[in-house]
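Tutorial handout. Part one gives the primary structure; part two gives the three-dimensional structure as tokens.
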Amino acid sequence: MVRPLAAVPDAVFAQEMVGPGVAVEPDRTGRQDVLAPCDGVVGALHPHAFALELDDGRGVLVHVGIDTVSLRGSGFDLHVERGQRVRAGQRVLTWSPVDVAAAGLATVCPVVALQGDATDVTVLAADGEHLVAGAPLLEWAAG
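Part two.
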């Protein structure tokens, strides 16, 4: 389900310190794939988060859950490597929101236009909307 960044229980995301965006609260069912939100090259890559470098020099961050770095990769499976080019919709990692919630951590997943200007980013999905994989989430105006 789509949630505003302001609803993320982490000030860095909620206050848009790294950029504007939106969050996705996954269904808490079994293991789930996290897909690349756009075409790009995998820059930063951790079991719980990744950043894509777009061809125009901008970046997009996907953070899987909050404080999930504390899990030290347990329960996360990476399917890409740093430096690899990915296409929108490609599987990047697999995780279990059920296990993350059982560990007492938030499962909400911020998707952020890194260092973007909030006036250039439009959220295309409404708060509370249930997303289908591949549905447009954000639009970032050409800079």
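Part three, for discussion. The chain has a mean pLDDT of 94. The CA atoms of residues 120 and 141 lie 5 Å apart.
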